[in-house]
User: What shape does this take?
Amino acid sequence: MNAIAKSYQLLGLLLLSTSTILVGCNLSERNLPLVENNTAQDPKSTQLTYGNFIFQEQDNTVLIPLQITGDRGWNLSKAASSSSRTANNLTVNFIFHNLAQNTSNLLLDRPAIISQYQQLTPQAQAETNAKIRDSSGVDASAGASRSPQDYTGKYWLYHIVEADTNQDETLSNQDAIRGYISDVSGNNLTPITPEQSQLKDWFFSEEYAQILLQVRTNPNEKSEFSEQSPLGLYTYDLETQKQKQITPENTKIKQWHLQGINNKFIVLEVISDHNQDNQFAGDDAVTLYLYDLATKTLYPVTAEDSQLQSWQWHEKSNFLLAKIQEDSNSDRVFDETDSIQIVKLNLDRLATQTPILQESLQQEIQQLYQIESP
Assistant: This one.
């Protein structure tokens, strides 16, 4: 059986749910709206069909979903919500048809599943901003202005399952889910996330022409993706067309937030396996980082062998303060024997972090209260 035939057979055995058009994405970690079907689909029962038309807002191109359907149906995701959704169908490709020029082309030249897709439009961006405002308290649209080149509405972003990466002879949400973008004509399809990874969430920073990508990686390619897999933040720069990993290797994002005027900064809380038990848990180190979208530079705010307790951004004074617990005795455990420190970061001098609880101040506190400070 050749590779193409085998790939189509995999499509018949899919455990994925329906594909959806995204209406925005949260900054918190979440599972993609893909629901597995415990009953394998008979490859012979699948058929090709065409979905509802999708008209683009800014040109004369219409998208026609190419879908597969089975006569026994599929276990569909209740999270899916779209006018283009057709019951029991899975999107495997798109036909891009130019109404004025009467030309057509396919998006993909290989069998795959397009599990989610969205055009980067002002409406989609407004909906995404609202979700960010709800989750982090920051208005992502406040003070925003356009980048020198306006990229809004010029790209489609896709979540694509195209390989049986866990070698179980099915395509499912346990396989790699790679991020791609294309232009509005369905050409220049470009991967924006690494191989052997799962795109979980994303945000389009129009001001800095970057797509922020929350990506789960799989260092051991023989194992499946899980909650204990590293979860990092990447960027894809639309101007340079380059992908870049922001967070350190083999770490897991706990939270990330947009901050500052025009959302210039990303504040990241990142877990590392400090106690070396091959897990990311509450007793591990949590480091606070600041990423400058304008200069594309990552700054550590707290030490990598410390555990972040809390942080606060004060825009009026242009300082960021963080409270941490240090691993004072270097035993790789954070407990009551370890000291507390407060550090500040001057947002005008990002490379310099200053401890507030100097040794002399700690001694003064101990002498005053005759109680050993934490």
